[in-house]
UniProtKB/TrEMBL annotation:
Official protein name in the record: Low CO2 and stress-induced one-helix
GO cellular component terms attached to this protein's record: chloroplast
Gene3D superfamilies in the record: Chlorophyll a/b binding protein domain
Keywords (A to Z) from UniProt: Membrane, Transmembrane, Transmembrane helix
Annotated source species: Chlorella sorokiniana (Freshwater green alga)
TM spans (from-to): 33-53
Length: 69
């Protein structure tokens, strides 16, 4: 019984120490960053009148990734 609980504790420690990969903490953090980015994009669209897709195109153009003529 003691070995079972030690293995449970070890697996919990390993799961908490993961930095990369599909962990619950990473997924929650990723989701929050995505929501923040969408909020900023929508607020910018509201303030400037430029659609979200056009904002992405302009950003790509400014960074030299796209050639918009």
């Amino acid at each position: 019984m003691r070995q079972y609980f030690q293995s449970l504790k070890l697996s919990e420690t390993v799961e908490k120490s993961k930095v990369f990969g599909w962990t619950r903490k990473n997924e929650i953090s990723n989701g929050r960053w995505v929501m923040m980015g969408l909020l900023v994009g929508l607020m910018t669209e509201y303030a400037t009148g430029v659609s979200f897709i056009d904002q992405l195109k302009l950003m790509g153009s400014y960074m030299g990734l796209l050639d918009l003529d």
